[in-house]
Amino acid sequence: MKKEIRAVAKDLLTNTYLVLPLRIETSVSMIMVLNHMITQPIPSQTSSC
């Protein structure tokens, strides 16, 4: 039982270590894209009105 729990915990740790950097990268890129959209409005939208 203890060995199984340890194996599962190890798998979870490795998964979080592998997934966390990807999530941080995606969130950072999303924030950058949002900032870009907020600071620089799309010309097509401004010219349409």
Written account of the structure:
The chain has 49 residues and is mainly α. It has one domain. Helix content is 90%, strand content 0%. It contains 2 helices and no strands. It is rod-shaped, with a radius of gyration of 21 Å. The termini are far apart. The model has no long low-confidence stretch (mean pLDDT 83).
List the helices and strands and how they pair.
Layout: H1 2-39, H2 43-48
Strand content: under 5%
How much is the average pLDDT?
83
| Oligomerization state | single chain
Characterize the overall form. Answer: rod-shaped
The total domain count is: 1
What is the straight-line distance between the termini?
67 Å
Describe, in short, the structure shown:
This protein has 49 residues and is an all-alpha fold. 90% of the residues lie in helices and 0% in strands.
